């Protein structure tokens, strides 16, 4: 996708500026680029779906949309081996500790896409007594993807956004993400789960 | 009807009767178990199919309405049992008469706190053990402070509660173990690739052999029934899409019909035809996806991609007319949201042309495969009696030889005029369940063929008052969803929003029966059986 | 055909001309080790890409095509990613065994690599019981899998490991017997000699009926041995999430992942060696011109080409058939394959004794 076609270039540019504020070592920087090239091009999702959005995620894997083109088709069922979790569907109170546990089981570096209105904010179930109003109450979210359910094209766009975000991250010395995550987890404790 | 009433009145003098769309019998709780036994066992009555138990909160009293149907003569009856004790409500269980009643009663207990004396398993069904309050009671405190998002792992008990009535009439609470103390219990789900969503099986295994399964639901319980009570009638419609997202059209159809019946709205023939066309198209799409995911569960991943091809073609048709791929919100009160797309007829004809070819291909790839045959034949046999007792409707019920297609037994909309066969098999195993669905695709295509050239002109949506108020009363309608009998119970107190809207999903019995037909089989068979029953978790959890 | 032993001898002489003997041997070992690791890694990456492309073709999709030309760099990206992923250490597990298991698996496939006849004169160890050695070392893999499943302290991995144990032990029999059948025909266990015997005609042609039966059984058992579909019960995704390696992350998981594909190559390579002449070009007695043309294709290309073609067949199985159930899988081996195999061995002996082979 050409650079101009993206809708949020300012955001990525400001992120890059923030990251490069302290300058980059030449060798480490090159190495960073190589590793980030690998990481951003190899995003393995966790097989995780609770409702409607999960079916669109299946469509995403099918011949029409074929996420294998980008190398995302290696959906792992074990959280240890996945890179990102696409929270496809509503998360309810009973599921919340399970989702948090899954997130904790993912191996670093790990990312989260909140997919669909329910995962972003509770969506059509805003008035419900049993729905978590947005998964960002439980786990840190990297990309928000609205829609009910989002179209597969939108899902591709969201994973591409995630890939872009990874590309500008700094793997060496890039502690900012980890720190943020730790702060988040401290602020949203779940007892009985070791991080 | 009249002789049923006479007969019951003779046997149970304190029963009172109300005439609605079905006969409603009021019976005191003490007599209820006897009446239930008579209703089920009496040769003339033989109400062997418990459609649902609707828990109700009438503000002064709590209670249940039981909907029963006879599979022999298709007679229907409903029974109302109430209790005035709001702090400690108790009714007698009928779980010894209908197997599915056990789960239905747990649901009522979860929503209303009504304890059923004699039910062997009185745990909460959808909500966690520590949930405070009973959400569907009218006086339930909904503030998020009462039940905050849990911050620790769910507490779990290995014991079930049972309430037993002693000789002197007192009720005692007892605890029994779910599994034996030294069972090897494997936890399958809630996040597991083969549970089709977030269902959880605690499975006691002996090597590879399954001894017992304890099903946990509620990991996607969104409280739709409660939300609906706060919304106006047109607003409640869109939740039907999000129950069973594969049969969004039939579910919408059902709720629209119920509201239209209550409001006395007559819809145009064009709208009827469009609705039926959409129902059948979504049935094909749903069965295609079923085959794909089922084969994927058995390890034949490639089949998924072949079946999704047809589904994508149907989704294209839907998208052109309804504007969405999955959650259409297309049927509305009085007809449908918008008229058919100009390409609709030609697109559907193109689809009909490819379906026979595809079915042949599926049979070649999968049905004829020796491994597939070995994996499915004789696995998870559900007898006709069990299917009825467990209320397993739809293709799964028809695979056991039970003619339960609502389109045939109680033809709604224009199904009475259409020519199609009800696909019935008698083996009751996973292969039969698979084949029934495969054959239903052909039948649905047949229905579409009859209609596609005869879509009558006319308005697609009749005028409906802006603010819709239903008269006081209650209604119960059923349709044939893609996975079985889907029902809507609607009670109105005359306001703009429903007093109680009960959804009767086909997936709940399908998940409940898993333990019954799996024990003694292998772990791999659990996946086969679960896949072939084709439950949708958001549908059962609501 | 170009004899690679010329090259290796030249290197040996070059090194020994200015080095003492012990240093020469050490240098050569290191050199071979590096070459082996390189070949190992590149082949595994190629196979991962190959499987994804083949699977995509069967499923009417395109497969990886964004990273590099035709998606060729996709597996490199995956490798970089896997290398830097976190290695999760679990509580309440046997840490040593947990870490050891993936190395055992990779060790087994790497040792098996050593005896494959890569080309004319291109072989790492050449000794008279090559085939026996190969079967012996490839069985170490099951130990790694059992350890992995047991030491993870997880019920899914335990079931997966036990499934894998019973599966591999059973199917080893079939592999062994069909290999013995072919060893009978070759009259030798040495890899070089088996290849040399096929100079005129590949064994699959010269051994006709018993050889074809042995080949079919070998292919089935080989698929089972590599835990690939339809025999992928130990890692049955829809049953046991990821089977015995559920708890492994990062490069530990990467080892299992690589070993799976390398085992695929080894199974295909051994089939090539036993039935399709190893690196030997396609020769027919009497067709001299044809044979001559075939000789122009380098022996390494012959070997790898044949092995990849055979692994294509195994991949084809995986993306076509549903998975078997554990009892069906075991009864297939013990009730059908084993008796057929024993009968086939007798048949082969008769064929040899009466000289009925070509």
pLDDT < 50 runs, ≥5 residues of chain A: none
In helices, the fraction of residues of chain A equals: 40-55%
What's the arrangement of strands in the largest beta sheet of chain A? Answer: 1-2-3
State the CATH topology of the largest domain in chain B.
Cytochrome-c3 Hydrogenase, chain B
End-to-end Cα distance of chain B: 33 Å
Terminal CA distance of chain A reads: 37 Å
Mean pLDDT of chain B: 85
Instruction: Report the biggest beta sheet of chain B as strand number plus sense, adding barrel if it closes.
Output: 5 strands, mixed
Q: CATH first level of the largest domain in chain B: which class?
A: Mainly Alpha
Which class do the helix and strand fractions of chain A yield?
mainly alpha
**Whole-number count of domains of chain A:** 1
Number of helices of chain A: 7
The Rg value of chain A, from CA coordinates, equals: 17 Å
Question: What does this molecule look like?
Answer:
The complex is a heterotrimer of chains A (195), B (542) and C (358). By secondary structure, chain A is mostly helical. In chain A, helix 2 runs antiparallel to helix 6 and helix 3 packs across helix 6. The model of chain A has no long low-confidence stretch (mean pLDDT 79). By secondary structure, chain B is α+β, with helices and mostly antiparallel strands. Chain B folds into two domains: 164 residues, NADH:ubiquinone oxidoreductase Nqo5 subunit (Beta Polymerase, domain 2, 2-Layer Sandwich); 318 residues, Cytochrome-c3 Hydrogenase, chain B (Orthogonal Bundle), CATH 1.10.645.10. Helices cover 38% and strands 18% of the residues of chain B. In chain B, the strands form six sheets. A five-stranded mixed β-sheet of chain B has the order 1-2-5-4-3, with helices on one face. In chain B, strands 10-11-12 form a three-stranded antiparallel β-sheet. A three-stranded antiparallel β-sheet of chain B has the order 15-16-17. Chain B starts with a helix and ends with a helix. Chain C has 358 residues and is mainly alpha-helical. Chain C has one domain. Helices cover 70% and strands 0% of the residues of chain C. Chain C has 15 helices and no strands. Chain C is globular and about 65 Å long. The chains are: A mainly alpha (195), B alpha+beta (542), C mainly alpha (358). The interface between A and C is medium-sized, with 28 and 37 residues.
